[in-house]
Amino acid sequence: MAQSDTPKYVFSKDTDAYFLSVHKGYEFCSRFFREAFHPPFHPREIINQCYEIGLKSLPLITLTGFIIGLVFTKQSRPSLESFGASSWLPSLMGIAIIKALGSLVAAIICAGKVGSSIGAELGSMKVTEQIEAMEVSAINPFKYLVTTRVWAACITIPMLALYCSFIGLVGAYVNVRGHESTSIITFYQNAFSNVSFIDIYSSVTKSIVFGFTIGIVGCYKGFNATQGTRGVGKAANQAVVLAMFLIFIEEIVIVQIANWIQWF
Prior knowledge:
264 residues; 2 domains; mainly alpha; 9 helices; single chain
């Protein structure tokens, strides 16, 4: 009887831990919305976090966006040429990069770079009791550490996504220019010919949601880190994995909603 009861107890314990973590995540998000719109707002810290998240990510975003535009155009050209439709290549790149690749690639890069950084930074502050020291000093650590980082992620990641889309189109133009004598003005006119306002709006909306997800997940994992220095690395790793998982889920949902809006 003892052997048969053990698996049930373990399963029940794991289930309770899962629902407890979901509840803690919900409470963490609810607390952010309760405190994010009330002073003090710590604008200097928000600007500092925008610099850490945005400007320091520009080199990686630039390189990745340019390569994606160049390679995706290079891989798509043979298929279009086989149908005699190589002139559609700028329009295809505009649809693919602006509607999907730009925001998604920027979010994935930031999930790996920014999410892990936030998780490790707050995790180290948690295990070294710096957060408790802020509470003793009459400073709201959630307000100063969490809301500023989430606001900065929501502000900078949409900008990085638009920048990544622009650089991706530059990479696409380099490939098109290498095969055809197309001016950059003509290329961008064709690239945006089939892109509607709803497409741009949905892309920006996705980027804001992605930014919130990366910021809140990184802060949650870092704010609840345990087990000393080992927990810091665990928090950073979990922040990246969970943020990427949620980003793909949100991508599917937002794209479906945008398609419904266009259909109506």
